[in-house]
Design goal:
5 domains; about 25% helix; 32 strands; about 675 residues; 14 helices; Immunoglobulin-like; Rossmann fold; alpha/beta; 5-stranded mixed sheet
Length: about 675
């Protein structure tokens, strides 16, 4: 017997306490008075019984309780070689990693994978335990550490391949955590998969505990015949006043032999057109379908490929809506030149994503209804009255966007100063000497984020001859400055909307920015940011996390209703169309098309032993032989766990001791 923490054995000195208590225990004597003791012989009285242990069982009970607790803290273990030999063939902790990525749906791979996992369950010994982990891009414990073969088999039979791709890293990390918690001497991992090459990213930081044996079970095929549909490309055109959408789709042949397939376009569940396609070995081909007119927002479309042995990659879903034209109201100064907004209006008219509907009005002709109908309002060097400023402030608070260009005559009433991000002052003259340049752009802001990359636009090439000096509000953000530090573009959030102030003109009167290539994308970014416009993607991938309003009501492609999504995010786990309704089911319905990761369609397998070697650091994943396999003292003690039994027994004896002591006291009274 050895001890991991032998210093705790010093606590055995506490055993002397019950002995001392027994030896010094005194009993009360009843004194009897006699009338006279003069005729009695005087003999010294000695109480021998006070120094004699009268109840050995009670003393031994107390000593045993203290000794067991002290021994438990000393963490005893057996070091005998016979025990080590027994541990080498003792109980096993097995983690069954079952790949449920959609590539397991090819042919009979899934049936073979389940059969291999069941064989492992049937091979468990009477004292063995096993866990089942299902994995694809992520991993989850379907059943944790049990020796119940019926429960393990039931979990395997209830599993099914999903719509996600393969990633071995999360599964192996989870297996390592489960095995680290086990106290059994032998720890094994059974990895059942088709071992797709794209699922292993060079180790993924995985390293299983020492001594773990990884056994790969491959259920792949020597020859694979598979074709997958490719992501679609949507082309928008106009015909007879209606928007038309042309779909270009393709297919990729993963086999080493030619394939003849058929691509079918479906719109809102109706078959529109079929197109045959011949594919050479390991090549792709494309076809174009006849354009169609989206009937409504979130029109559902699907391109299907003729059936083969892997069904998941034979469909590509997408959503298309008629383009939403964002209304931009450009407000000009009465009597001013129409050329002042010429560059601005032309830049907005050239946008296609999204298209802008540009309306130009003078300040005295703008009706309140036109303000409410606009997504963005541009005040181009316009003096604003207090009444107009109050209407514009209400427009912004309700979610509108306001862009104000302070030229020579631009003004905003101080009484409504809680809206405007700046207070305009005098004009700065840079006509003498070097002209002003833009610098210190806030590239983290959506307006300038697209210009972060090299050669994406040079704002410093524009020259500024005049601009207004401004005082910036405390809660406003400066997005751009001139080379002398003066603010050029300032933003302020007001209610649900935004206000941006530009301290120069939008024509060539005070600068030549309108003549530079960056002017058009800059104006587009400003307008889309102020309108809070986000482009709806035609499709997303399974495994993506979709931001949704908190409290949304979601219906999955399988028909499951997920009421009240409170996290503000939804992980897509199924292939097909998700319906998202904001406001707990009372808001507008938004449809999202979810597709599988087509990289999983490449069924090229890797060497299974590479995964095992990468996870264990040993070739083949087997346990090393010789001295490296000898357990340390801590490992021996952890696998035996003798201290737990000693502590439990000591606590039981302490609980029994008061009962025994009361019984003894009653008998001697």
């Amino acid at each position: 017997m050895s001890f991991l923490t032998p210093l705790f054995l010093a606590g055995l000195a506490a055993i002397a306490v019950p002995v001392i208590i027994h030896l010094i225990q005194k009993e009360r004597k009843q004194v009897v008075a006699f009338p006279s003791l003069m005729f009695l012989r005087k003999i010294p009285y000695q109480s021998v019984q006070r120094r004699r242990i009268r109840n050995w069982p009670l003393l031994l009970l107390r000593l045993a309780a203290l000794a067991l607790i002290v021994l438990a803290f000393a963490r005893p273990f057996l070091r005998r070689e016979s025990l080590a030999a027994a541990a080498a063939g003792g109980a096993r902790e097995v983690v069954i990693l079952l790949d449920r990525s959609y590539s397991l749906g090819y042919g009979d791979r899934w049936e073979r994978a389940i059969a291999a996992a069941k064989d492992a369950v049937n091979g468990l010994g009477p004292v063995d335990r096993a866990s089942v982990v299902l994995f694809d891009t992520g991993a989850e414990v379907a059943l944790r550490s049990t020796g119940d073969k019926a429960r393990l088999t039931a979990v395997l039979e209830a599993a099914a391949p999903g719509a996600a791709a393969t990633r071995y890293g999360p599964a192996l990390k989870l297996a390592g955590s489960l095995l680290a918690e086990s106290g059994l001497p032998n720890r094994d991992v059974l990895l059942v998969s088709d071992f797709q090459r794209l699922g292993w990213q060079g180790g993924d930081g995985v390293r299983l505990p020492e001594g773990v044996v990884v056994t790969p079970v491959a259920v792949g095929d020597a020859e694979v015949v598979n074709a997958s549909v490719m992501p679609v490309v949507l082309h928008r055109t106009a015909f007879s006043g209606q928007e038309r959408v042309a779909v270009t789709a393709g297919a990729l042949n993963h086999a080493a032999r030619p394939a003849r397939v058929t691509l079918t376009l479906e719109v809102d569940g109706r078959t529109i057109e079929n197109r045959p396609l011949t594919l050479e070995p390991r090549t792709a081909g494309t076809v174009s379908f006849t354009p169609f007119t989206p009937a409504s927002a979130f029109t559902r479309g699907t391109v299907r490929l003729s059936e083969d042995l892997l069904a998941r990659d034979n469909a590509f879903h997408f959503v298309v809506s008629p383009r939403e034209r964002l209304k931009v109201l450009i407000v000009e100064r009465p009597g001013g030149s129409r050329a002042a907004s010429l560059y601005l209006a032309q830049a907005l008219a050239l946008s296609e994503t999204p298209p802008f509907e540009v309306v130009r009005k003078t300040m005295d002709t703008v009706a309140p209804g036109e303000i409410d109908a606009a997504a963005v309002i541009v005040l181009n060097d316009v003096p604003v009255s207090q009444a107009a400023a109050e209407r514009l402030g209400a427009f912004v608070r309700q979610g509108g966007g306001l862009f104000v260009a302070f030229g020579e005559r631009g003004a905003w009433p101080a009484a409504v100063g809680d809206v405007m991000p700046v207070t305009a002052g005098a004009t700065a003259d840079r006509t003498r000497g070097s002209a002003g340049r833009l610098g210190a752009l806030e590239y983290a802001h959506p307006v300038f984020e697209g210009f972060r990359a090299p050669r994406s636009g040079d704002f410093s090439a524009a020259r500024f001859y005049n601009y207004r000096a401004v005082t910036v509000a405390p809660d406003a953000q400066i997005l751009a400055r001139y080379d002398d530090g003066a603010p050029a573009l300032v933003e302020r959030r007001v209610g649900q909307g935004r206000v941006m102030a530009w301290t120069s003109t939008l024509d060539v009167a005070w600068n030549d920015l309108a003549l530079k290539p960056v002017f058009l994308p800059f104006i587009h970014r400003v307008a889309t940011t102020l309108a809070a416009y986000t482009q709806q993607p035609a499709s997303v991938k399974v495994g993506d996390v979709l931001p949704v309003p908190s409290g949304s009501f979601v219906v999955t492609p399988s028909g499951e209703r997920l009421a009240q999504v409170d996290t503000g995010a939804l992980e897509l786990r199924e292939q097909g169309f998700y319906e998202i309704r904001a406001g707990g089911g009372a808001g507008e319905v938004r449809t999202v098309a979810s597709n599988v990761d087509l990289a999983e369609s490449d069924l090229t397998a890797m060497e299974p032993g590479d995964v095992a070697a990468g996870a264990t650091g040993r070739a083949g994943g087997a346990t090393a032989a010789g001295p490296a396999a000898v357990l340390t003292d801590a490992e021996r003690e952890r696998t035996q766990r003798v201290w737990w039994y000693l502590l439990f027994a000591g606590l039981v004896l302490l609980a029994v001791e008061p009962v025994a002591a009361n019984a003894v006291r009653t008998r001697y009274v």
